[in-house]
Amino acid sequence: MATENKVRFGIIGFGNQGSMYAKFITDGMVPSMDLVAIADIDPAKLTQIEETYPQVQRFDDYKAIIDSGEVDAIITTVPHYLHPEIATYALSKGIHVLNEKPAGVYTKHVKALNEYAKTVDATYAIMFNQRNNPLYQKLKTILDNKEIGDIRRVNWIITTWWRPQAYYDQSAWRATWGGEGGGVLVNQAPHQLDLIQWLTGVPEKVVSRVQYGYQRDIAVEDQVHAIFEYENGATGVFVTSTNEIVGSDRLEIVGDAGKIIVDDSAVATIYRMKESETDINKNMDVDGVRKLMTGQLAFEELYDKEVIQEENVWGLQHSGVLENFAQHILNGTPLIADGQEGINGVRLANAIHLSSWTGEKVSIPEFDDDQYLDLLNQHITDEGKFDTRK
Amino acid sequence: MATENKVRFGIIGFGNQGSMYAKFITDGMVPSMDLVAIADIDPAKLTQIEETYPQVQRFDDYKAIIDSGEVDAIITTVPHYLHPEIATYALSKGIHVLNEKPAGVYTKHVKALNEYAKTVDATYAIMFNQRNNPLYQKLKTILDNKEIGDIRRVNWIITTWWRPQAYYDQSAWRATWGGEGGGVLVNQAPHQLDLIQWLTGVPEKVVSRVQYGYQRDIAVEDQVHAIFEYENGATGVFVTSTNEIVGSDRLEIVGDAGKIIVDDSAVATIYRMKESETDINKNMDVDGVRKLMTGQLAFEELYDKEVIQEENVWGLQHSGVLENFAQHILNGTPLIADGQEGINGVRLANAIHLSSWTGEKVSIPEFDDDQYLDLLNQHITDEGKFDTRK
């Protein structure tokens, strides 16, 4: 299957992401992969590929590259609606798939892909590169070990996704309901929608305020506020937008036994309490209350503080996921992100849209895939530029 | 009216706040005031007053101190429901009133007080001491001058209001519907509910998730999440709780021309953009987009950054409001906080409760005072400890 213990890799789509991955692989950042083929439907892109990577085979059709016999595995760096379609086709041919995020645009589509992927032997993974940020890896361990106890409150403001009108105007499919299926929730924030549920669990209910075409001339959303309810009673807030030059990236996770604050996805301050808040509360007497009310309670003696800083080297997250995917195929190394998990972020994004459309609180466990697709199709029909979806 | 150019001041209620103000005045922190009388209904408190301030007159009834002829002005440091009742009585006797925050518990009550206060000559002010924080004063000027442009997004997480069960168990009225009228929204967060609307305007609509007795054995709320909608389309988030040992105090205000981040009500980072986001967006071409997407856009060249730090000296905020109130009475100095403005924070708190009770989005301009009072009374009746309100 693999030549010289390397996975023969094909990239489908030579846009921003596809060309970046091609460079990482040919620069030697992904030792267990050979880039052997690239596909794109755009003739100009094919010329560009030929000039940049003359040694690599070119295809103008995703089926052709998958059927070529040249590749063991592919990645789907194409508009989001195509992710499930291409992934399913590749898996049906025994080709391993690294799906681009989001796994798809609507839950019904992604669920069908997930069900199909369970029936085949080929690997199905997903490019959640931010899970490969060493900082988030450490926080995942801290949270899984319950070092800050049961979660009570989560708050992520992630507005560093600034995109100008000229970005949206680049392609006819961008920022449309029919071509892209959403805005910041579908294109930029899927990273954090995955991370927030990976770190603190899938919420149960969602209420949102979504602003469509707020600061951009687009049909889809460029500013989003959502409140999550978790099964244990905890509450989450998720804020994202594409219209802030001075963007925020601030994550707070509060537990019964501590707190984590992450700034700019680079610096985490971890507070570990010596005794849980539940116990401190239970044991505090009137004298403690008097101290509290006169500013004499030494809060800082109740916890230890640790600051973790990780350099976020550009490219290492993505190339690491590519290498992990190849290692999984070659040696069975556990995946950083199983493709099956892609549904969680898609369902969260769909629920946020749905709540804004219906004005209702939306249940995640009882999420109505058909209702969402119906309303999405209504938006596509009203837009009048693309066919509806099934 | 005033002796030796000083206001003869009476404190009604000798609890945490009342005793603190007594100390500030007798320590000479409020040069334009003489503390001449204190009232409390608790005989133990009267003994304590006699021991601490033998020179001060004592009263066991608020009407007696107001009617005594000894005081020019009073402050209402009593349970919140009594604020409008005592303030109205004092104003009716020509006595100047510094109302404690919140102005009252429910809008109908506060509106009646406001209407009455407009018909009398006596001064009606309110103890919004945090408006007297020099940091917030500066931010108010920056915002009023539109230095960061029109507001797009506001986010305040204020969870530094930790209160243990023993605090709630101190008095029978605390954390009850009938005795206090709410939890963190009525007792602790009114400061920030006032500041947020003072700084960035009164929101138009409110949606909330309010957690009643979440981490405390109380009937009222100890954790609150709300989303605000502003008239210009901006969105706000307000988060508060009383169950975090490692509390957060983080305010973000994003405008078209900049951003303000305030940490711990002490350090403000102000970003002023050289060109508005609207203009940067309009003028960015494909080359700019290419730079953005390859990480080469120098965001930091698009704004200037200033850090303002103000030492928050304990007591100066409160004593400053007391002195300002006295100076207003004596010399007509403009008030830091006119009592009329107390309605805004009360209405916000009521709207947050109402949204959680009805599950609906609540309009601020069309706020239904009677509906709120009806539902509050339902809670009081269900609780079965106190009489309903009118």
Automatic annotation (TrEMBL), chains A, B:
GO terms for molecular function: nucleotide binding. Residues 136-260 form the GFO/IDH/MocA-like oxidoreductase domain. Residues 7-124 form the Gfo/Idh/MocA-like oxidoreductase N-terminal domain. Signal peptide: none annotated. InterPro entries: Gfo/Idh/MocA-like_OxRdtase_N, Gfo/Idh/MocA_Oxidoreductase, GFO_IDH_MocA-like_dom, NAD(P)-bd_dom_sf. Coiled coil: none annotated. This is Gfo/Idh/MocA family oxidoreductase.
